[in-house]
Amino acid sequence: AGCEKEPSSYMWIYILLGNMLRGIGETPITPLGISYLDDFAKEENVPVYVACLHTIAMMGPMFGFLLGSLCAKLYVDIGFVDPGSITITPQDSRWVGAWWLGFLIGGATNFLSAIPFCFLPKSLKKPEEAKKDKTSHGLLENTGASRNKLSPGKTKPRKWSVMLKGKLLGNRMYLTFLCCSLLQFSGFIGFLTYKPKYMEQQYGQSTSKSNFLIGMTSLPPVGLGIFLGGLIMKKYKMGIIGATKFSFTMSFLAYAISLLHFFVGCDNYMVAGLTVSYE
Known about the structure:
- It is a multi-pass membrane protein.
- The chain is mainly α.
- Helices cover about 65% and strands about 0% of the residues.
């Protein structure tokens, strides 16, 4: 009974709120950033710019794993206890790394990197092709506005269900791409989440070394592949169908190669009463 202790720390609330604010801040970057590039860049350069954007985004998790590897080597109470009084090492199962240090470094880096966005212009000059189409777009807008003025009574607010079914779910290309993206991200997130722990358990590696290996061997090739994909799309000027076939081929090859993971592993640990008898 003397060992029982009620949890009294509410630090998890601050971590929850911090991650919520971070998610709110990160939300506009990808959809609005890609739309911004698509509107103000030449059509043949958009794949390269988007590839650069995603490649730089992949560098974040890579440096995050390296930072996590460094923080895992530091004791959790670093700065509050004498390092000479610590008698255990990172290889000890009781070791707890300075997990909180990564949040401070990452938060400060995010804050500093957001400052240059405040100095960006509100709008950029569009390419010549967009200027040529400006007259036709204006004509269409004026035509639509005049129709609305002539028949204001017929204009009715469209229901969300009708818009969802007609615009989104009715688009087979969009729906297929959405399902493909869900499968890819689900597999990739599971890979990053559980592979470090798998390396610790199966290969006897420390948390620090596992994070270092994942950060160096898994994420840089993905970023390089995204960049090369953008260059290939620009060189061969792929349309929607060509890009779809290219994406399907590369994804199929990636899944086929990833099946080799099934042939990698070690024997299970000998656990008394579970894998072996007590005798």
